Amino acid sequence: MSTIEPLGIKKLEAIHYYVHDLERSRRFYTEKLDFAEIGGSGPELEAAAKQRSAIFQAGECLVVCSSPLGEGGRASRFLRKHPDGVGTLVFEVEDIERTFKLLESRGGTPIDEIQRATDAGGEFASFSITTPFGDTTFRFVERNGYRALFPGAVHYTEPRGGKNRLALERFDHVTSNFQTMAPALLWMEHVCGFERFWSIEFHTSDVDESATHGSGLKSAVMWDRQSGVKFANNEPYRPFFKASQINIFNEEHRGDGIQHAAMTTRDILACVREMRARGVSFMPTPQAYYDMLPERIQRLGIKQIDEEVSVLRELEILVDGDRDRSYMLQIFLKESAGTHADREAGPFFYEIIQRKGDQGFGGGNFRALFESIERTQKAEGAA
Q1: How far is residue 374's CA from residue 46's CA, in Å, rounded to a whole number?
Q2: How far is the C-alpha of 361 from the C-alpha of 223, rounded, in Å?
Q3: pLDDT value, residue 71
Q4: Which residues of the chain carry a pLDDT beneath 70?
Q5: Is residue 37 classed as helix, strand or coil in its secondary structure?
Q6: Which of 105, 127, 161 is the last residue of a domain?
């Protein structure tokens, strides 16, 4: 257990996603994922930041999508180096001054001083820091009655678009891929005060002398004990380092970065049915996974689940857990480049998860996911 003073994080508030095509993102979030569009950037902010933003919300999940307006803005700089991707994670904190002092005293690198603003509701304060997550920054915000999501945001009187009929709730975790993750793990521990939560390493197939291909990884999950915010972190695993889908992500993203974000739902069966009806594409799961599932449930010690295996097979939902009646259900959307048939849409994707007592990360499902990604990459000629 860490003895480092926590940063006072309350929650992961929002993901800031930089995109080439804002209208395409608007259609994806409001039509496919049933998010409501609750606002966007005002004209003054757009002129100053040189980017246009839209704010989407489902439950507590907030996604800000920004596209460049000419050169010189943050979105433009990010997209010159990368395809569409997550450029900022926004965390709400209890005391912005304390968070700033703690981070700076431990070797954190603030990008700016604390910035303050007020509106009719109250006060807002924020600052950003660089991270080992490639070009992704962390932004910390403190709210004291402030109504807008950020200074310069304009919120609609009535939300537009979706109604969250998928029953999405909150961000469960964020997963990042690195060429080498040790620096990021040390930074999260010694600068941010996070603790080691879980780890795994494997290949998609048993490696023997005759093996010529495989996708391996090492993964470690760090968490902020106070808020429960979790970060899963991956690196490629030899002997097929270059063939690892972690390395392929790094090549497609053109650097380290955030691979996916997981959102919880109250009812994953209804959620996935509705998403499939809306034309959402998912990572495929081999049917053999479900042939073996009843035996695997017993082996894991879960013993019994509420869902019918035939329904899970139909929807291609994965199951994992580690003790009696404690399990989780999860499914992974197809990456954005495949969803939009555009390489510059990037390799980021979402995970949908329903926790039924288990707080792990589906270690048994990692292999199924990575084999699925590997098959997709082979079919598309990436591996």
Answers
A1: 40
A2: 12
A3: 94
A4: 1-2, 201-215, 362-383
A5: strand
A6: 161
Whole-number pLDDT of residue 362: 63
Instruction: Please give the pLDDT value at position 207.
Output: 42
> Beta strand pairing status for 168-177 and 115-118?
unpaired
In a domain, 279, yes or no: yes
Domain with 143 in it: 9-161
Give the model's pLDDT for residue 366: 63
Pairing relation of β-strands 230-236 and 168-177? parallel
Residue 49 sits in the same domain as residue 196: no
Please check whether residues 86 and 190 belong to one and the same domain: no
CB 283 within 8 A of CB 334: yes
* Nearest alpha carbon to residue 326 among 298, 356, 304, 362: 356
All residues at 6 or more sequence positions from 168 whose CB lies less than 8 Å from its CB, including other chains: 33, 58, 59, 61, 263, 264, 265, 271, 352
Distance CA 204, CA 237 (A): 11
Please state, in angstroms and rounded to a whole number, the distance separating the CA atoms of residues 145 and 142. 10
Q: Both 332 and 186 in a single domain?
A: yes
HSE at residue 203, side-chain half, CA atoms within 13 A, is 15
Q: In this predicted structure, what is the pLDDT of residue 323?
A: 72
Considering the domain architecture, whether residues 179 and 222 belong to the same structural domain is answered as yes
Q: How many CA atoms lie within 13 A of 190 on its CB side?
A: 9
Tokens of 306: 């509420």
Which domain CATH number covers 150? 3.10.180.10
Q: Describe the strand order of the beta sheet including 61-68 as a list of residue ranges.
A: 115-118, 123-129, 137-144, 85-93, 9-18, 61-68, 51-58, 36-41, 153-161
Q: Are residues 30 and 151 in the same domain?
A: yes
Number of domains in the chain: 2
